[in-house]
Every structure is written in structure tokens, then in C-alpha cells.
Design brief:
The chain is α/β, with parallel strands linked by helices. It has two domains: 416 residues, 3-Layer(aba) Sandwich (Rossmann fold); 121 residues, 2-Layer Sandwich (GMP Synthetase, Chain A, domain 3). It is 32% helix and 22% strand. Strands 5-4-17-16-18-19-20 form a seven-stranded mixed beta sheet, sandwiched between helices. A five-stranded parallel beta sheet has the order 7-6-8-11-12, sandwiched between helices. The radius of gyration is 25 Å and the shape is globular. The mean pLDDT is 95. Bound molecules: adenosine-5'-monophosphate-propyl ester (PRX). Adenosine-5'-monophosphate-propyl ester (PRX) binds next to α11, β20, β24 and β25.
Length: 660
């Protein structure tokens, strides 16, 4: 892959090598354009053909897309399938039975390999175990586990019996877990005794106990516990079951529950700009189709690939590109329990070297922290490892700055591996905008062009498409198979939040701003247009953090804004007004430390404000509305140039500015 020096100066393109392009699923821009055209000309026909070719249907569908009740679209609605059958049995039938499905690298470096045959057996046994507890199709099961083969087994077992899983990231606190269990109306929780990260044993089961105790009205009747560490845990007889005991005498075959294509596969909670987290509901058929196609198109997956996506199964990336997509295409995945910097900052490169990873998919935050680590200590630099197995790199979760892109390209990909910068969201189920690695000329910092079949536009506040070169709101203007179906239990919120009236009610609003390059039409994501922050690739609602801070006994009022951060992309800056008088010096430091701990406990360490500033008041309009745009300017240390005539208390700006 070489840079093309003849291109105009400001845009420097990076092209795939001829060999890569020739063997790719989409072998050049003409092939890409042909697919886009096919979708444009016959939208339903395009999706129908792909769905027939890629998904194994028990009962073939005859209806492709039902648009009678927008935005509640239905895809392949009279088809029947089972997602776990598509991910597991398919591989037993097509010669992959003895191929490694999962290569699990534990925190301490121990490696466990699980073949498709073995994975199928374990999933069937757990599925039968769950059935023996009375768990049925449509029941909700919360999975609160760390990265482990068992977590994937748990997700697949739910899919096998038609239960709807809701994975809650293992870093979430008891109140957050409790809220999600309650909202989903879960009847069971699958967890582990503890999780191991960076050599430390951290609780999981104890947090489940706390979460259940916090909500007397929850519907959980069973808790299934995977024994990871063997540490002592409290055991509630009748409710709690060890996973190994539950599955021990179960049959190794579990006939899949054939479900309708629209049957929900999972709920995954995601932060909103207001109120509680939203339970994004995904379907079985459409979601699986896009998980498979994006593995083929964006990741150009081949039977010989070793695919490593570093995302935790608690996030959408871990769902689509660990638990479902790679298995449905018969790939071998690496699953890593630990953290990138333990026991040393060369761990990621060591794992790539050790397992001969060929496709590596990670987040810009991880890349930036490893650049820093390798600059500080050459011992952990990627040059110390053999990375020659790599052929493709991917980035996800937040914008990747050109410096980090170029470092990734040079030091990890050795100027040989294309980088797919994939823009998408929990709600989209899979990639929306990303380069096709054998086709798209790459530009650092741009996620380039929409995938075939995705109709993405940049519009103004009234929904009118803007010319290239003008920044606006990113929207998707046609329903697509892997789209969110609703917000669990709140159809109205789904409708008003994602399909805003102001834009005409027919455009899916992603929540991001974007601009297209005036010449290439390439997209650059300019950041969220709502009050959702993106810290290390994790979406967090400012309201969520504010309401937790305000619930602290010492706090009268709090406002939270995002601030650019070299490492985490964005960091949280909280402006806090205490009930008592303004704290100074050491007292302020102690209270700030307490508040950080409080947020960690109440939500998760991810939500912990990096900076806390105290003031006597917040900048407010005469009608009492907090002027967050001014707080954003103060947090960034910039000069205030905006109009402040509507501000009731201008003097407060000076105080907040000097509050560090
Ligand atoms: O703001 C965008 C950002 O992450 C948001 C979605 O977050 P979440 O639902 O947690 O899913 C993250 C993993 C898909 C988006 O609205 N985002 C995600 N990928 C990118 C990105 N921003 C810029 N470039 C990306 N590649």
C-alpha cells in the first residue's frame, strides 16, 4: 500500500495494495459503486438477495420490508430463523467443526482454545440449563460478566432458546445494573463470581446481590454464576446456581427455538442526552444479516483470518464483532480478558504476535495510550514484536485523529494494512460509514463513505440536504435491516428521539454532526450534536452524570460538559455548586475526590469527571436555564466571545474561570 504523491496537496490518499484489492470481497471502487447502485435501483431486491444468500432461514421470508407503520419498520417479517443456529450449527455442517472459534487469552496469559464443536456443545448445555429453570422465549436475561468464553456462551444460549439478553458492562455499578435489570423486567441474571483485570479480582456476583437488593420489585428468580476465580461469594439457596452444576447433566443437543425474523435478539442500554439510559432493541434476522455482511465487506474476512476485536461484550462492538458476526462467518476470534497496559504496555502487540492476529479492531483511545506508552519506554514499542501476521486494521467508537491514524498505519500496519475507520452506533447494529478495505482510498481522520445499502446524508435543521463542504446533521434516510427497532418499553421515546419531527419524521437522526469533503464526498464526523459525551469511545449522557452528582448530599447543583482530551478523546468537566459555602484549597480537593468516587460508585469509573470546578452559581439565563455553551468555553480555557446579554449573573463567569 503506498501513498500517491500525484494527488492534490491537501488530500493525501492511501491505497490498498494490488494483492489486497484483488482478493478482497469488494475488489475496487467499481465493485463498491455497483453495489451502491444496486441498492439505489431496487432497495428491497438488494436486501432480499443478500438476506437469502447470507442467512440460513428455517422458513424463507416472502416479505422484505414493511413500511406501513413508520418508524416501526419490519424486515423479512414472515421468515423464521435462529441466530445461534446460524453462528454454531452452520459451522458444524460446513467443515468448521474442529476449527477454533475462540482463542481466549486470560489476564495472566493462560490460553484456552475452543472449537466450534465444543462451543456448540457448551451453548446447548447452558441453553438446556436455562430451560430447566423455566426460562422461555421472550424472557429477558441480564448478563453481567467480563470477557470470557462463558459470556459468549451465555449470549448464544439465550439466542438459542429465544430469550432476549441484555448484557450490562461489568464496570457498571450496582445502581446502574439495578436500573437496567428493572427496566428490562429480567427474570434471570447470568454473572461470574468475580472478574480479573490487571491482576486484580473484582466483584461481579456481589454487585448483582446489591443490585437486586436495591429494587424490591424486580422479577429475577434465578442467578447463574460462572466460577471464574473461586473466591468466596454469598449464595442464595433456591435462587443462585453455579453454571457448572446447572449444565453438568444437561443434554449436549438443544433444538433451536425457531423465531420470527423480527423476534428481539437483545436489548443493549445506551446513554441518552436526557433521562435514563435507553434500551436499544435489536431484531434477530436483520441484525444478523448486517453482522455477517459487515464481516465480509468491511473486514474482508477470510477462512484463514484470526480476528481480534478488543471491545468488551458489554458494548455493541463486542456484540456484533465478537459474539455474533465473526461466528456466523466461521472465523477464529481472539478474546482478551485483561487490559492493554498490564502487566506491561506491550500486551496488545504481544497478543497479536502470539496468536498471529490478522485483523485487529480497536479504539482510538487505546491507540493513543499505547503511543504514549511506547514513546515513554521503547521496550513496549510495537517494534519489539512480530506483527507481520496483520493484514487489516480497524478503528471504532470515536473520531480517530490523523496523528493516531498515521501512527497506527506506520507502526502497527507497517504501511501495508488498510485501516477501516468505522462509524456506527449501538442503535445501528453494525457499520454505517467505513472504507471498503480493498477499494476505498483512505484519508486519515475520515471514515470515508457509507456502506452499500446505507443511505446517509448531511442535512440542516429542517431536514434539507446540505451541499458537500457544509457541516450539518448526520441522518440515515432509509430504514436498514440492522436498525434499532424501538426503545425497550418506550415506543414514544424511540419515535421522538430518533425520528425528530423537525426533520420531517422520516430521517433517522444519529445524534452526530458531519461534514462531507467538497471534492470526494468523504464524511468526517464532527462530534455529537446532543448532550452525549464520548469518553474513550463510551457514550455518556451529561444528564446522567449531573443527576448523580446532584444526588450527593453536599451538592446543590451540578452541570457537566465535555472537553477535548489527548488520551480519551473527550473528558468530563463538572461545575459543582455545594450546599455549603465555596470550598478552597485542600478542602476543595478532598470534596472533589469524594465526588469522583461517588460517580464511580453510582454509575461507573468511566463516568468519573476528570475535572471538578466549584462555584457559587452556574451561568443561567433569566428564565433559569443553564448556559452550557459558556461552561464548555470555560472548561476549554477559551475566551468567551459569545453573546452573554441573556445571562442573569455575568459575574459568575469570572469566578468559574478562576476556579482551577
Ligand atoms: O459519536 C459517534 C461515536 O460513537 C457514538 C456511538 O456510540 P456507541 O453507541 O457507544 O457505539 C460505539 C461503537 C459503535 C456515535 O454516535 N463514534 C463511533 N464510531 C465513530 C464515532 N465517531 C467518529 N468516528 C467513528 N469511527
Amino acid at each position: 500500500m503506498a501513498a500517491n504523491p500525484s494527488e492534490k496537496k491537501e488530500t493525501h490518499f492511501y491505497y490498498p495494495s494490488e494483492a489486497f484489492a484483488q482478493n478482497a470481497a469488494i475488489p475496487g471502487m467499481n465493485a463498491y459503486r455497483a453495489l451502491c447502485r444496486a441498492a439505489e435501483e431496487d432497495y428491497k431486491g438488494f436486501w432480499a438477495e443478500l438476506a437469502r444468500e447470507n442467512v440460513l432461514w428455517r422458513k424463507p421470508f416472502t416479505k422484505v420490508l414493511n413500511e406501513t407503520n413508520p418508524p416501526f419498520y419490519k424486515w423479512f417479517e414472515d421468515g423464521e430463523l435462529n441466530v445461534s443456529y446460524n453462528c454454531l450449527d452452520r459451522n458444524l455442517e460446513n467443515g468448521n467443526a474442529d476449527k477454533d472459534a475462540v482463542v481466549f487469552e486470560a489476564d495472566d496469559g493462560t490460553v484456552t482454545k475452543v472449537t466450534y464443536r465444543e462451543l456448540h456443545k457448551r451453548v446447548c448445555k447452558l441453553a438446556n440449563g436455562l430451560k430447566s429453570l423455566g426460562i422461555q422465549k421472550g424472557d429477558r436475561v441480564v448478563i453481567y460478566m467480563a470477557m470470557s468464553v462463558e459470556a459468549i456462551v451465555a449470549m448464544q444460549a439465550c439466542a438459542r432458546i429465544g430469550a432476549i439478553h441484555s448484557v450490562v458492562f461489568g464496570g457498571f455499578s450496582a445502581p446502574s445494573l439495578s436500573e437496567r435489570i428493572g427496566n428490562a423486567g429480567a427474570v434471570a441474571v447470568i454473572t461470574a463470581d468475580r472478574q480479573i483485570r490487571g491482576g486484580r479480582h473484582l466483584p461481579l456476583k456481589a454487585i448483582v446481590d446489591d443490585a437486586l437488593a436495591m429494587n424490591e420489585n424486580h422479577a429475577v428468580e434465578n442467578v447463574v454464576i460462572y466460577r471464574r476465580t473461586g473466591d468466596k461469594i454469598d449464595f442464595v439457596e433456591g435462587r443462585d446456581h453455579w453454571m457448572h452444576e446447572l449444565t453438568q447433566s444437561q443434554a449436549e443437543i438443544c433444538e433451536p427455538e425457531w423465531v420470527n425474523a423480527e423476534h428481539p435478539l437483545f436489548i443493549l442500554y445506551t446513554s441518552g442526552s436526557t433521562g435514563n439510559p435507553k434500551g436499544a432493541l435489536h431484531s434477530s434476522g436483520g441484525y444478523l444479516l448486517w453482522a455477517i455482511l459487515t464481516m465480509r465487506w468491511t473486514f474482508d474476512i477470510k477462512p484463514t483470518d484470526v480476528f481480534w476485536c478488543t471491545a468488551d461484550i458489554g458494548w455493541i462492538t463486542g456484540h456484533t464483532y465478537n459474539a455474533y458476526g465473526p461466528l456466523a462467518v466461521g472465523a477464529t476470534i481472539v478474546l482478551f480478558e485483561g487490559v492493554p497496559t498490564w502487566p506491561h504496555a506491550g500486551r496488545f502487540w504481544e497478543i497479536i504476535d502470539k496468536h498471529k492476529v490478522s485483523i485487529f479492531y480497536t479504539a482510538p483511545t487505546a491507540i493513543r495510550s499505547l503511543i504514549k506508552a511506547s514513546n515513554e519506554n521503547a521496550q513496549f514499542a510495537p517494534e519489539q514484536y512480530n506483527l507481520s501476521s496483520l493484514r487489516l486494521l480497524g478503528s471504532v467508537g470515536e473520531p480517530i485523529n490523523p496523528e493516531a491514524w498515521l501512527w497506527f498505519y506506520k507502526h502497527i500496519g507497517k504501511e501495508r494494512c488498510p485501516i477501516v475507520d468505522t462509524f456506527w452506533q449501538t442503535e445501528t447494529g453494525g457499520h454505517v460509514i467505513a472504507p471498503m478495505p480493498g477499494a476505498t482510498p483512505l484519508v486519515p481522520g475520515s471514515c470515508t463513505l457509507p456502506l452499500p445499502g446505507m443511505f446517509v446524508r448531511v442535512v440542516d435543521e429542517t431536514g434539507q440536504e446540505l451541499p458537500w463542504g457544509q457541516g450539518g446533521i448526520l441522518v440515515i434516510n432509509r430504514p436498514w435491516p440492522s436498525m434499532i427497532r424501538t426503545v425497550w418499553g418506550n415506543d414514544e421515546r424511540y419515535k421522538t428521539h430518533y425520528w425528530p419531527e423537525e426533520l420531517g419524521g422520516k430521517l433517522y437522526q444519529a445524534g452526530d454532526g458531519a461534514i462531507r469533503d467538497p471534492e470526494t464526498g468523504y464524511f468526517t464526523i464532527t462530534g455529537r450534536i446532543d448532550d452525549v459525551l464520548n469518553v474513550s469511545g463510551h457514550a455518556l449522557g451529561t444528564m446522567e452524570v449531573e443527576s448523580v452528582l446532584s444526588a450527593h448530599p453536599m451538592v446543590a447543583e451540578a452541570a457537566v460538559v465535555g472537553k477535548p482530551d489527548d488520551l480519551t478523546g473527550e473528558s468530563i468537566c463538572a461545575f459543582v455548586i455545594l450546599k455549603n459555602e465555596l470550598p478552597k484549597g485542600d478542602e476543595a480537593k478532598t470534596i472533589a475526590a469524594d465526588l469522583r468516587k461517588w460517580v464511580s460508585q453510582e454509575i461507573s469509573p468511566i463516568a468519573r469527571p476528570k475535572e471538578i470546578r466549584f462555584g457559587e452559581n452556574l451561568p443561567k439565563t433569566r428564565s433559569g436555564k443553564i448556559m452550557r455553551r459558556l461552561l464548555r468555553v470555560i472548561a476549554r480555557g477559551e475566551e468567551i466571545t459569545q453573546d452573554i446579554s441573556t445571562l442573569e449573573n455575568p459575574a459568575i463567569l469570572e469566578q468559574l474561570r478562576n476556579s482551577l
